[in-house]
Amino acid sequence: MDKDILQVKSEIDYNKIGLKAGLEIHQQLDSRKLYCNCPSVLRKDAPDYQVERKLHAVAGEGGEIDLAAKHEVSSDRKFIYQGYKDTTCLVELDESPPFFCQ
Question: What's CA 33's distance to the chain center, in Å?
Answer without folding.
Answer: 15
